[in-house]
Amino acid sequence: MSAFNVLLAGVGGQGIVFMSRVLMQTALLRGAPARGAETHGMAQRGGSVVAHVRFGACRSPLVIPGTGHLLLALDCREGIRSLKFLRPQGLFLANSPGPGPLAELTDDALRGLLARNRITVRTLDAARIAAGLGNPMAVNLIMAGFAAALPAIPFTLEDLRRAIPLVARSHHLAMIDAAEAGHRAAESEAD
Amino acid sequence: MNASSTARRRLCLLGNEAIGRGLVEQGCHLVMAYPGTPSSEVLPAVVRFARAEQVRIHAEWCSNEKVALEQALAAGYTGKRTAVVMKQVGLNVAADPLLSAAYIGVIGGMVIVVADDPGPTSSQTEQDTRQFAHFAKIPVLDPCSPDEARRMVGYAFDLSERHETPVILRVALRVCHGREDIVPDDVRTIARPARFRRDPARWAATPRHRYGQHLALEERLRAIAAEFAENRAFNGVTAGEADSRFAVVAAGNPWAVLMDLLAEHGLEDRVPVLRVGTPYPFPARLVDEFVSRHDEVLVLEETDQVLELLIEDRKRLRGRHDGTVPAAGELDGAVIARLLSERLVEHGIVDRVWTMGAEAASVVEGLELPQRRPVLCPACPHRASFLAIRRAGGNRGIYPSDIGCYTLGINQGGVDTCHDMGASVAMAAGFYQAFAHDAPDGDPDGRTIPPIIATIGDSTFYHGGLAPLASAVYSNARFTLVILDNLVTAMTGMQPTLAGGIQADGAMGHSLSLEETCRGLGIEWIEVVDPFDIPAMEEVLRRAIAHNRDPEGSLAVVIARRPCALDAPTSFSRREVRITDECDLCGVCLKRFGCPGLVAGENQVEIDRMICNDCGVCVHACPKGAIVQCEGPFPDSGEPR
Predict the structure, then answer these.
(1) Which of A1 and B49 is assigned the larger pLDDT?
(2) Over residues A67-72, mean pLDDT
(3) What share of chain A is helix, strand, coil (3-state, %, to 5)?
(4) Is the previous residue joined to B281 through a cis bond, with omega within 30 degrees of 0?
(5) In this complex, which of A42, A116, A127 lies closest to B491 when CB atoms are compared?
(6) Is B183 on the interface with A (CB under 8 A)?
(7) Alpha carbon distance B46, B81 (integer Å)
(8) Of the candidates B355, B499, B479, the residue with the CA atom closest to the CA atom of residue B426
(9) ∠ CA A10-B407-B457 to the nearest 5 degrees?
(10) How many CB atoms are closer than 10 A to CB B188?
């Protein structure tokens, strides 16, 4: 079986590295092999940050462009920048402000690309949910919870609940609340 | 914690943490390091695992890599197991002791962990440490995964002790910062009291003895090359049909990417691949024999040509020498997919070039998304310093800088040069001497010699700034040196500094005062300022420049002291910052201050509330006074003051 490949895209400071560690921990709890690639150093200072997480057997921590199953964007534009990683029929989940799609997502060429490759796009105003929780830094776990509610994703909300305390040094409950809020948002959307 | 219970647990480790784990497992006694991306996480992992396993390891952040290597060498003379950890450009600093270490060797095992940075993502160069090892005549190992890096530590110690030579464990970015689930081994403790066997002919060898040592070194390298050629733990054919015309020699993460690509396209059984984890001394018998069996062999290695240059029959090779493999940049999935599939098409193995992600990449490029370049954090004291520095030095000023977060002062026009650790000080002196050459009678009005304001961080200052500062004092070079003292080595992940005095294990050591250090070097003009007080810092800098020009004056040192905002988020008071109607989007704050919390709106600058830290320094950045800060902390309503 080949690996399930996840890309996390965002901006330095949004907690991408932390989120990738939580996702890898979910694999560990299930006894499955996992690999990941992180960004440290200068690029962390507010620059574009991409983390790779691979569930299952593989040799490199890097997702090869065109082979990603899930692109999880904490910033919608940064997600678009990483679309090359998705394979046909991949899933693009983005934190995007407001009720409508971001201007870039309505670009004709981009919409054509997404349609030709049958890529599913779903956006969530995770920043608004985070503000509602009084925890603006929680966008990462809200998006993780959002993803966990969807079919064919290799981690569940319960996996996140168990993994978070093993990775975070403090504030476990607030983080689990955030993952649950993201999960609820996906479920209510599906209703 | 019980040692065996932790050892059985699967751990999800970064490559650098896995190396730290390996050092603890192998009974290493002393670890010396200087932080630098992508190597910085090794030493903290040593401290963590040593504590958890209740073993005693001396872990030290040294002032620089040369000091780290020399300290470890002496400990290695006494039989202790040692490790030295640094990034690839750190090895340039440690080159002097390294080359002698190949001749003289050690008694206790020594592993030199050096982290390369293909890309580069956080470095000045893309130099290849395997090439450095070849030049220095020191055996080098090249792992392709975090767990293999951990396992190689054990082999490296064994090799080192059998041959009494240091061994380099060269790790590249994707191994250092790759994460993998690992089943750790038990920790072994090696009781080996330090014992120094006096042997001046070896430890203090004169040139006559060095000749003999060189002959012995060459003999040792031949023996290790033969051993490497037999090694199947880290070398070997990992895929493919033996009689294929086309084959690949690969190493490190490029090997791992290659294997994933072949698996993705169902070609694992088709294309023969030889993996080389022990590149030098070159296992010629193994690699040359493999190459001779195929008509064309693609070489995939980072970051430079090493295997490609050592393989005897280069006529069969496709790689960097013929332009098949790019000379610069990381060999990531997209690059390897393209160049591998081009070869496969040529050999009729696949029918078209793999354009993995290329369509999406070109569509996204057409969107012209704004580029996000790295910036200093909101409330960073360096940003405040650069605002004051640019104001005091003006357009004529020359701004040599150095390696650290503050290199990002380039965004504010406050950084003109960035070269290597400590070069800011030497270059400031060099600029001064060049302009002073044109002013034989002095320059009290500053007509010939522009203001020269150099910037260096507190950690970089103790790494490479002391020697050039001593030279500058001695030769009476006139410039202003701003030591940006944020009390921590921030860029690489908040390691302690000599000035702070905290040791790698968190215990308090002896702290070095920057003021006393400068005074001891003979500098008389020293001022300490708070960079958040922009007008005060600007005034101090103007006096410093005047002192540089004064016939009776000299070099001036300004210490800009304030904790890193990321490391000490409660070190400053927060009062809400607002933009008033006076703002006409002139852009001065965006250009000269460049805080990510300030963004250009339709007609005015706006504050990004998610990012803004409400430090209020930007109040000084607006020439029109259109940025204001409220009086109380976080008012619910009310007008700005």
Answers:
(1) B49
(2) 97
(3) 45, 20, 30
(4) yes
(5) A42
(6) no
(7) 14
(8) B479
(9) 115
(10) 11
Neighbour-count burial of B581, counting CB atoms closer than 10 A to its CB (0-12 exposed, 13-18 middle, 19+ buried): exposed
Q: How confident is the model at residue A111 (pLDDT cuts 50, 70, 90)?
A: very high
Residues 346-365 of B with CB under 8 A from A: 354-361, 363-364
Strands A34-37 and A48-55: antiparallel
Q: How many whole angstroms separate alpha carbon A180 and alpha carbon A170?
A: 17
Separation of alpha carbons B88 and A12, rounded Å:
24
Helix (H) and strand (E) counts for chain A?
7, 6
- Measured between beta carbons, the chain A residues lying within 8 angstroms of B264 are 2, 64, 67
ipTM over the 0.85 cut-off: yes
Q: How many CA atoms lie within 13 A of A176 on its CB side?
A: 14
CATH of the domain at A102: 3.40.920.10
Mean confidence (pLDDT) of chain B: 94
The rounded percent of chain B whose pLDDT value lies above 90 is: 87
State whether residue A44 is helix, strand or coil.
helix
- DSSP-based three-state secondary structure for B103: helix
Residues of B in contact with A139 (CB under 8 A): none
Residue B621, pLDDT > 60, answer yes
- Looking at the DSSP assignment, which residues form a beta bridge with residue A141? none
Q: How far from B274 is each of A61, B151, B293, B297, CA to CA, in Å?
A: 20, 20, 12, 10
**A191 or B612, which is more confident?**
B612
- Is residue A41 predicted with pLDDT exceeding 70? no
Q: Which residue of A has its CA nearest to B252?
A: A60
Which residues 6+ apart lie within 8 Å of B113 measured at CB?
A: B19, B39, B42, B83, B84, B85, B86, B168, B169, B171
Neighbours of B218 (CB within 10 A): 12
Q: In this predicted structure, what is the pLDDT of residue B634?
A: 54
- List the one residue out of B347, B254, B262 whose CA is nearest residue B307: B254
Number of separate domains in chain A:
1
Of residues A33, A45, A65, nearest to B405 (C-beta): A45
Which of A26, A64, A125, A135 has the most B C-beta neighbours within 10 Å, making it the best mutation to test the interface with B?
A64
pLDDT score recorded for residue B5: 45
At residue B611 the predicted structure's pLDDT band, cuts being 50, 70 and 90, is confident
Distance CA(A191)–CA(A135), nearest Å, equals: 26
CA distance B253 to chain A (A): 6
Domains of chain B in start order, with CATH, are 3-229 (3.40.50.970), 235-357 (3.40.50.920), 381-561 (3.40.50.970), 577-629 (3.30.70.20)
Are B372 and A20 a contacting pair at CB < 8 A?
A: no
B357 contacts on A by Cβ (under 8 Å): 65-66, 84-86
Decide if B37 and A45 are in contact by the 8 Å CB cutoff: no
Interchain pair B178, A77: CB under 8 A: no
B64/B631 Cα distance (integer angstroms) = 45
Compare CB distances from B334 to A28, A45, A65 and report the shortest one's residue.
A65
* Residue A14 clears pLDDT 90, i.e. is over it: no
Asked if A65 lies within 8 A of B259 by C-beta distance, the reply is no
CA distance, residue A30 to nearest chain B CA (Å): 11
Which of B145-154, B235-244, B530-539, B552-561 has the weakest average pLDDT? B235-244
Is B570 strand, coil or helix? Answer: coil
Q: Tokens representing B532? A: 């958040």
- CA B581 – CA B416 distance, rounded (Å): 35
Q: Give contacts of B358 with chain A, Cβ < 8 Å.
A: 65, 84
The confidence band for B633, taking pLDDT boundaries of 50, 70 and 90, is low
* For range A103-107, the mean pLDDT: 79
Residue B504 identity: A
